[in-house]
Write the structure tokens for this entry.
Amino acid sequence: MKIKLTEEQYNRLLTENNREFGRLTDKVTPFIVKLFKLIEKKTHPESTIPQRMVFLTNDMSLPTQEALIVAYNYDQFYKENMTNWDNLLGKPLQYKGIYQFTTEVPISAEFWARAYTPATIYTIADSKEDAMENAKRGNFLVDENAIDDEKIDWDYDMEGMSVAEDMLQDNLHDGFDDPSFEVATGEVDSYMLHTLMLKNKLTPH
């Protein structure tokens, strides 16, 4: 009897064990050898792991986690000049996986607020007309003490939002949320993937 798995069910099976290799197993198989040969043929020798992963996910339709394992191991074998791919059959594969957990993340941003509110302005002049001209030249003072903050209808803009990574790192050290990482089940966009590789020193700057 054949059982057809949904994508969600497949991803659950893939991530039940944090050392899960998915469909690849933990050794070099003929399928892996074929992928290594295609990587060598279709990508530039100086390609990074994320660039090889793009080939594996786009052209070979591998899920991100499997593409990472194949691309990472290809890179390791290549660095050791072990490029006679057929001779690698049965060799162990090193596991690499993208992990995730969801938590409260500290962020910071610059806020800009604008509003109009009743206030009294003062200037010194010889007449009403001169007072207006003097104010137009910037020679005035606003009585800020008379402004009622609670009655102001603010119009907000926000710029430069960023994650406070140093604070998040401190929070992780403090165990603020009892983090429990699991293998990521979704796709990771190419920019995030490249940045993640840089942070984990899996690709050159």
Summary: DSSP finds seven helices and six strands in the chain.
